[in-house]
Structure formats: C-alpha cells, structure tokens
Amino acid sequence: MSAVLRDRRGVHFEVLPPLALYIHIPWCVRKCPYCDFNSHERSGALPESEYVASLFRDLEALLPSVWGRRVHSIFIGGGTPSLFSAPSIDALLAGVRARILVEPGAEITLEANPGTAEAERFRGYRDAGVNRVSLGVQSLEDAKLRALGRIHSADEARRAVQMALAAFDNVNIDLMYGLPGQSEAEARADIEAGVALGTPHLSAYQLTIEPNTVFYSTRPSLPEPDSCADMQRIVEETLERAGFEHYETSAFARQGRRSRHNLNYWEFGDYLGIGAGAHGKLSFADRVTRHEQMKQPREYLQGSATAQSKTVAARELPFEFMLNALRLVEGFPPALFAARTGLAPTALEPGLRQAEDKGLLERTADRIRPTARGRAFLNDLTELFLPQE
Ligand SMILES: C[S@@+](CC[C@H](N)C(=O)[O-])C[C@H]1O[C@@H](n2cnc3c(N)ncnc32)[C@H](O)[C@@H]1O
Ligand code: SF4
Q: Which of 25, 27, 31 to mutate to test the pocket of ligand 2 (most atoms within 8 A of CB)?
C-alpha cells in the first residue's frame, strides 16, 4: 500500500495503548563529559518544592488528554533524581496519585547516582512508594570512572548498590563499555564485577560520543569499532551465562524482572512526560501526538504549562514504531503494530518484505523479530521503514 493511501486511511484506535508517566529532574552534582541528557550542574540548594509544583502544573495541563486512563508505571529520571530529598519525592508521588489513577502495584522507578546515595534516603524513597531503583554505576574500575568524570569511586558504587538492595528488591545498574583506553580484558572484568553486585537487572551501553558534549571536543581515544563489537559479545555472553535474559539491545534481566516502564516505550505505548525538557506520546481515537516541555530549568520553573504538542503524521508511524520495537531481542507479535499505531497491518508490509529479503528480519505466525544480522545492523534495518517520498 502506498504512503498516500496509508495517510488517507489514517489512524484509528478502538482501544488505546497502556499509559506510563515519565518525570524528569534536570540537575546533577556535576555534568559528565559524555552526557547529552537535559541535565544541568547544580549551583546551591535545589528549588525542590517549586519544581514539584511545576511538575503538578504540567500534569494538570495534560490531564484532559488522558481522562479516565490509568498509569501503569512511573519513572523518575534525570539528571539525578536522588538529589531530591525523600520528603520531596513523597510529596511528588502523593500529588501524582491525587491527580491521576495509578494502578495498584505500578512499577515506580527512581534513578540514583552512587555519589548521592544514602541508606536513609533510599528507605525514605521506598516509604514514598518507589519500588525500583536504577543506579548509574558506569564502571567498577576507578581509573575508568575518573576518565568518565564521575563523582564516585568503584567502592562507593558497590556500597550504593548494597544500600539499594537492602531497601529494594528491584534494582538496576547502568554500565558502559567501549570506554577511553579500555581493553577487552578490562571490559570483561568490568561486566563480571557488575554481575557480582547481584542486581536482578543490568543495562550495558556502548559509550557514544554525542555532539554538544565535552567528549565531542576533547575526543578521548576510544577502542576500535571491531574491539567494541567484541566487547558487546563479551557482555552478552557473560550476562547470559550468569542467567540474565537479554531482552532489549542494552537491557538484561533475571526472569520476571524486565523493566515494565521501558518495555512500554519499546512496545510503543503511551506516556506522559513532565519536567524540564521531558517529552511524551499520547494516542487518541484518530491520531497520535507528541508533546515536549520547556528545556531550561530556570525558564521551565518560571513559565506556565507550555508543552508543545504536535500530531505525528500517519506515514511516520511505521518508522517510529519500528525504531522502538526492533530493539526487542524477541521482537513483537504481529498484532502489536496495529494496536499501537492505529494503522492497518498492511502499512508495515513493504518494509517487512525488504527486511526479510536482506536477511535482517524473520517472521513466524506469532512473532516479527530482527535476525542476529538485523540486530548487528539495527540502523540499516530501521531505515527500511522510513516514509517513502
Ligand atoms: C539518563 S542517564 C542517567 C543516569 C544517572 N544520572 C547517572 O548517570 O548516574 C542513563 C544512562 O545512560 C547511559 N549513558 C549516558 N550517556 C551515554 C553515552 N554518551 N553513551 C552511552 N551511554 C550513555 C549511562 O549509563 C547512564 O547511566
Ligand atoms: S550524572 Fe547522569 S545525567 Fe548527570 S551528567 Fe552524569 S550521566 Fe548525565
């Protein structure tokens, strides 16, 4: 079916996708030289209560778009949300619950930096309703942590993980590989040290050099691409041998511990985004929209609810869906595409055929999934679903 015909048929939902909530806290103790997230070095005390009030302002402005819907997961990300006190997180989650229905048993994650971890604070977060913590460990080698400009040592990271595991049974650690000057043996030792920490979830990212970061101008010497590919293989093999399921490009979980919030992104669910620079996606009976909040914390705090919202063109939805769903190692059931884009299943056909012909994707009656080659060349695979001019 041509793109034009697809547009004419348009988007139609009988049942809306599941809904999640992302809350952005935009401050850090120090900006890491590789980081291009909307995070800003803190100067002085943080305006915690003013910021929480602004988050409620955003949420209230979005409520008419989600009347009657329930939130099934919440992710408080950053930046460094663990800079906020437990009472502020408590006020935040209480205020969210007062404004929108949060499903009982919803997954509620808070991102923490090992440099800001305290046992008492973790217990306070738990009492506020947080039930999952994600710690940015990055590496367990001091020299690498210094090269990454991190504010914590490997021992501090270990202690932070122990504290988190004492308060929560659902804990993730973020690690990176392909670090400046890293050898394959060092990458292996790092991932083994990560496994030894005993968390049920682990995310392992290859370090990328992003524009507008310090590393973009200083260009640290990184391992060659072939070596990074070997490190990726070492990471995957080590984690699989340790009993983790590799379920998304960079995500590994013990059985039953996959991140429900992140799975919702990869399955192209809906999410509200509140906080400086946060973005969200919402479906309506006849369209899919995206919204984005003002980025700079100072302007954000001063402004009124200003989320910019736009409708996603129907012809762009197959690519947007695949950009997420093809990250899933096990792929997705064929019916998910229509359920999450509101388009006819045929809108995906031309891209699927090309991808199969190139050996990048395979289909069974109940699954559409990337092949090993497709996962290795994920950008090439995803591009096959770009709208045709
Ligand atoms: C939203 S960040 C925030 C985590 C938390 N602020 C921290 O750093 O402790 C989530 C994760 O993305 C990864 N990440 C950030 N920048 C990256 C980059 N340039 N390349 C690869 N991974 C990156 C890091 O592992 C980081 O922990
Ligand atoms: S602590 Fe995390 S969010 Fe903050 S600058 Fe470093 S990587 Fe970015």
A: 31
The reply to whether ligand 2 has any atom less than 6 angstroms from the CB of 77 is no
Instruction: Give the pLDDT confidence of 106-138 residue by residue, as tens digits.
Output: 999 999 999 998 889 999 999 999 999 999 999
Ligand number nearest CA of 211 is 1
CA of 244 to the centre of ligand 1 (A): 21
* Nearest bound ligand to the CA of residue 208: 1
| Separation of CA 201 and ligand 1 centre (Å) | 15
Give the pLDDT mean for 255-269. Answer: 98
Say if residues 130 and 89 touch (Cβ distance below 8 Å): yes
Token pair 């968390």 is found at 199
Whether the full predicted model's pTM is greater than 0.85, yes or no, is yes
**What's the mean per-residue pLDDT of the chain?**
95
